Amino acid sequence: MDQEKLLLIPGPSPVHPRIIHSLSLPTVSHVSPIFVTELKEALANLKKIVFCEHGEPFIIAGAGTLAMEMALLNTTEKGESVLVLSQGFFGQRMAAITQSFGIDCDVLQSPWGKAVSPEDLADQLSVKDYAVVSSTHVDTATGAAAPVKSYAEVLKSSDSLFIVDGVCATGGMEERMTDWGIDVVLTAAQKCFGVPPGLAVLVLSDKAMTRRNRMPSIPAYYADLLRWLPIMKDPSKYFSTPCVNEIRSFNESTKIIMEEGLDVRFERHKRTAMAIRAAFKSLGFSFFTEDSFLADTLSVVLYPDGIEDKAFRGRLFENGVVVAGGLGEVAGKVFRMGHMGNLSLAQIYFALQAVENTLSSLNYSFEPQAAVNAAKAVLGED
Ligand code: PMP
Known about the structure:
This protein is of the alpha/beta class. 42% of the residues lie in helices and 16% in strands. The protein contains 14 helices and 15 strands. A hairpin with an 8-residue loop joins strand 14 (324-325) and strand 15 (334-338). It is globular, with a radius of gyration of 21 Å. It starts with 5 loop residues before the first strand and ends with a helix. It binds 4'-deoxy-4'-aminopyridoxal-5'-phosphate.
């Protein structure tokens, strides 16, 4: 049955029992003291998770794409220009959103598996002014992590606001808004927070809020952050009914993150990624993403000769693990495995054992236990 499978697609990620429990609590009033306290706590934790010292956090029913749209509409006016740094699928989505609202947009597109260089960003800024520069942190299709800290460094010498799409990174990889100079981090609930899908999550710096405050109106109503700001400051006020249970479960996830500690959590994601990659290498697999861009939150794994996509993923599913196929130009050539959020060691070893069982049943030859042992060596468990 589907619900017994270990979900290792690049989001939604597996949901921790504490988060499941908070979802199943009786629904309380959206203006009750319990909910007011929990939303405030989630907002305060969210700011800590993205190292934002001065700015405004927002947690709103929706998804990552709504957060992308909100980030753009609340910072950019018609007549201004946006530069999208795209390493794949979701950069192109950001460009499509700008075009939907008639906003001028240029795209710097890297080859899939890499990211745009900070030098190319600097060159582009020397020929044109941009109100906003936007980058995906980790592209979920290519497994490439962009050098967002270096982009922010380049952007310090310009007036552009810097938007980071952290949907596949925030809460699993470091994003220091204030120190690095990021103006908007946007994300969603279902990836590194390990909460079921259903939330658009944003944090805006003071500079980004000033930009919004300067605009008399924007072409949005629900997506206008100024309508939500009073609720985020005092959740006992009403604008549009918040998704009470989902926000309480998001709060639980921020508590899990704060209890683990941010540095420990980022390091755990790094080690988990290294362990999973060592495991696949030991089986003779390689990776689509270029080495220096490998993300900590998912792997895009190339099939070796003789392993067919549908057969592999189908058999792995029967063995208890769900991974995703490739998108766009790599469809059929790779599978994508998420390793983000609150994944336990037991889940990692279960997944690798299931991969070995799958490969054995497909008559692929490898040294038995190679994957599990390679992962254990990285995780210090041998
Ligand atoms: N950005 C990135 C990097 C993503 O991975 C995704 C979802 N996979 C999105 C944006 C869009 O998020 P959603 O599907 O929640 O709308």
